[in-house]
Structure formats: structure tokens, C-alpha cells
Amino acid sequence: MHVLMMSLYAAMAAVVLATVDPKSDTTRERVLHGLKIFGSFLGIGLLLSWVLLPVPW
Amino acid sequence: MVQRDTLTENIPPHFADRTIPFNEPKPVSAARRIAAVVAAWLIPGAGHLTLGRYGRALMFFVTIVGAFIVGLRLHGHLYTPTVAEPGSLFHYDLITVLWSFAQVGSGLCYVASFVMGIGMTPIQQAAASPTFEYGNTFMFLAGLLNYLVVHDAFDIAAGRKR
Q1: CA-to-CA distance for B130 and B127, rounded, in angstroms?
Q2: ipTM
């Protein structure tokens, strides 16, 4: 459930952030930028959850 | 073979700096600019629709309205600023002001939900749902992304970007 929600959140944020990005001129650049954002959200989320796993509170 | 632009190649030097290339973005009138910004806030994507960016308009509408609906379906709460406890630094509870600001960004989604009382269940009751925090997060996402979209519509209308 949590990973599904995180993926949906990352996808929605990536679509909008990549589309409004002023540095991307072509559709290909926007798609690549969106994939980077999506991957960053998921990667950082998983990394943080792994780092915080031993924290008892 | 290099194609030459016969319209602009013979422009006198003192006019050359004052010409705008065909592919440069051009600003629209102030009235259209204001209309685009207001429309963009009210209905996600509508600002881009008024500026002729149909693909982006559809993408923003589906994503932002979708995020708001997902938030409501996950039992997210529609926040309004609440009065803080006596003796607090501010008159209003600051966190509810910030959460309300984030959600108000989704425009008519917020207003319609507020008028129809959707997502307005008492906070203690709503918080009992296991997906309450997920729902809130999606509703904040919808509003905050729409603020970016409004800004993007303004930039396009002002001729700062395509």
C-alpha cells in the first residue's frame, strides 16, 4: 500500500514538475526529466526508509 | 543549402535589434494574462487552455484533479484555518493556515468540496482512518502543484517561455 501510494505521488509530481520545467524545450527532454524526478522520489524514499529502519521511534 | 529569410535579411542595422524572431515566445495582452492566471487557479489546466496549450492543459487537469480526488477517496481532510488556543502567539493555528493555503491552491476543487461539505468530517473522526495521512498528502500535492501551474501559465502569457 505504502509503495503504491508513494509511486502514485511520485508519478503525479513528476508529470507536473517535468512539464513546467523551463530548461526542457522538447518532449523528449521533458520525458527524461520526468523519469529522473520519478526515480529520485522513489530512490530517496526507499533509501530514507532503509536508513530510518533501525530508529526505534 | 541554407535558406535565407527574405523578409529580414535586408533590415537596416538600427532596426535589427528591435525585431523579434518568429519562433520567440510573445507576450499576450494584460487582460488575457489575468484571465489565464485566474482560470489556471480555478480549474487546473484552464489557464493553459486559454493560451492554446491544449496538451499541457489536459495533462495538468487530469493530474491535479486526479490527485485531489484520490486524496478525498483516501479520507483526506479539507482544512480551514482554526482559531488557536488562548495565549498562543498567533490568533489562528499556524499549521492549519499552512495546510489550508496548500489545499486552496486546487481552486474550484477546494471550493466545491467546501460548499458540498465533502472531506469536512470532524478531524478526530477523519484521523481514525488508516489512510487519513495519505489522503491529506495527495490533497496538499494537488494544491501546491496547481500553484506551480498558475505560475507557468503566467510565464507563458508574459512571453517568458513557450
Answers
A1: 8
A2: 0.89
